[in-house]
Amino acid sequence: MPLTGLGTYALDAAQCYNSVLALLDAGGRLIDTAYIYIYISQ
How many separate domains does the chain show? Predict the structure, then answer.
């Protein structure tokens, strides 16, 4: 599993596309596309 990855949460569509393309071109493979994280306390 890669040690670092790309988070896309705060990016607009063009930024996201360009960032993901650059990551893939550089050999990166970990892309976190979650819209939002919600943690529930138990």
Answer: 1
